[in-house]
Structures are given as C-alpha cells and as structure tokens.
Amino acid sequence: xxxxxxxxxxxxxxxxxxxxxxxxxxxxxxxxxxxxxxxxxxxxxxxxxxxxxxxxxxxxxxxxxxxxxxxxxxxxxxxxxxxxxxxxxxxxxxxxxxxxxxxxxxxxxxxxxxxxxxxxxxxxxxxxxxxxxxxxxxxxxxxxxxxxxxxxxxxxxxxxxxxxxxxxxxxxxxxxxxxxxxxxxxxxxxxxxxxxxxxxxxxxxxxxxxxxxxxxxxxxxxxxxxxxxxxxxxxxxxxxxxxxxxxxxxxxxxxxxxxxxxxxxxxxxxxxxxxxxxxxxxxxxxxxxxxxxxxxxxxxxxxxxxxxxxxxxxxxxxxxxxxxxxxxxxxxxxxxxxxxxxxxxxxxxxxxxxxxxxxxxxxxxxxxxxxxxxxxxxxxxxxxxxxxxxxxxxxxxxxxxxxxxxxxxxxx
Length: 412
Fold this sequence. Notes:
single chain, mainly alpha, globular, 19 helices, 0% strand
C-alpha cells in the first residue's frame, strides 16, 4: 500500500495535473463550470413548475427557461471559443472567438430540408440535446483563431493598432465561417446531425450500467487525489443533458422516462453523492461520535455542509484526499451508489427523474423525493445510508486508532 500511495503521490498525480492543465483540456473543464449558472436558472424554473402544477394560478415563467437553459448550446459554443483563447494566451481574441463560434453554430444548427423554416426545430437544436455540437463548434473556431494568432500578422507593421486588430479578427472570421458555409451550403452536409451521430456511441455507453459506474467512479477517484471533478464535465455534461432532455420529451409526449444516467440521478437526488461526491455523509456521521477529540470536532464542524451535499471541507480537512485508509471506501461507495440506483430504477422500485432540477445543495432525502416524485425514495435513501455507513465503518475505525495514538503521544 505504501508503494502504491507513493506512486500515486509522486508520479501519477503530478502527471495527471499536468495533463488536465493543458489548454485544450482546461478549456473544456472551464466551459462546463461557466455554463452552470444558466443550467441552474433552468433548474429553478423546472422546480417552480413543480409548484405551479399544484397552484395553477401562478404565472407562466416558461420564457425564462426558453432563453436560458433553452439556448444552452449557444452559450456552450461561445464559452468554448472564449475559454480556448484565454487558456491558449490570446487575450485579444477572447470575445471575438466566442462571437464567431455563435455565428458558426447558428449556421450549423439551422434546420435543413422540410424543416428549413421551422423556428421550433432551430430552438430544439440550440437546447440541451446539442451541447456536444456547441463544444465541437467552439473547439473548431478556437483552433482556427489560435492558428491565426500564432502568425502574429502585421505585428511589426506601420498600420495603426486598430486597423491591425480589425484585420486579425476579420480574417479568422472569414476562414471559420467560409469553411462552414462550404460544408453546409455548398456540400449540403448536415454537420449538426453528423456531430450528434458521432457522439451517440459515447452517450449510449454512458446510459449503460458499466458506463454509469465509470461516470461516477472516475471523477471520484481523481477527487480523492485532490483533482477537481469539474475536469470531467466536458464528457459527462453532454451525456447528462441529452439523457434528461430525452426523459422530459418522453414524458411530455405521454411516455415514460427511461434514461437513468442524468445529473439528477447522480447529484440532485443525493443517493450517489450523499453528502457530496464519494458519499461522505456516513463518514461525517461517524466522525461526530468519534473517540478522537480532533475527529469529533471536525465532524461537528463539517456536518452542516455535508447535509447540504458540500463535502470539500471533509475531503480536505477531514483528510480523505490522499489518505490511503479513507480513499478505499470512497472508491467503493462510488461503485455501490450507481449500482444501487440502477437496480432501483431499472426494476421500477424508484421513479426515474423526468424534470431537470440540478440544485444539488437541497438536503436529502427531501431532494430525493422532489426529484423522483416518489415517496419510496425516503426508504431507499435510509437503506443506502446504512450501507454507506457500513462501508465507512471499518476504515474509519482504523483511521481513528491512528488519530488516538497521535493524540496520546502528544499528551505524553
């Protein structure tokens, strides 16, 4: 174990941090973080609509949803182009590349054929189902602006600075939009559908039990190494968004939700992330009653954030990160959680979420009932809490013995 931890700390973690800090990967991660306010805006309206279903006299706030979360692909395209310029060191292009990405996306997302004049089809393409397209468009635009920026065109010329700036924006705009025009309007390629088709195998794998486990385990594994789970948002967010949007559409059409792997199932429901990623609420509860004065104090300080599914304090302050004793149960819980949720939802023992509510800081099991609209969530949450507690217990007691020995040595 010591050799394994030394390898993780001295070799694996530095290399992983170096990889995730590379501009293109960092831009994906940063983009996912910056679109969260717009996702949460939509979540608030979906939550409001739950209340409105019981109080029909409340006003319709649908337009707020339509022009925030409803155009999330536009926001993703802008932010991806913007963040690429920031991470690649082109401050003069951060706005222009983002705006060009919006124009490029609109050209790509514009309906073709029989739906050419359909505003509803266009709005559908700009919604959650097209996030993968927004990312690819932003990447494409950002790459062209980056390559042009490396030329330093007219850098030492006698042209006024504002003229140079105009030229260095116009040329990559023309190149980007010109290539897109040739693909869409000359070659008649449905670029939007091609990107979605290329993404579908990944989305389909994500909607399987093995994919579900990996989606939960990989970010948890890196989280225990001190690497933020936001890094993986570029992969998981399109899967989550496509899944919940399909569930919403299916229920609206009179069908049933079938996609289990959504952000609502992973985060909002607070089963898999009970107390936060790695399901640390059980650990926090054990700490509150520890024989170690230090652990008991920390546990009682951290319990309020844990109830609201915020676990950075316990992960770093309670020393789960890079702690070989507590990392193992954190990994185990990240497998147990998705398997447990998959069994419940696939067998009909718990409703599959069909509303997009991504406010992950609502205490459980209140949020569990709210997101599933199923009172059985109370029972299944309590059962899972006991399971998590049992997983944490032997590892926590081993860690507690170490802390007690340290405290005894200090007293002596």
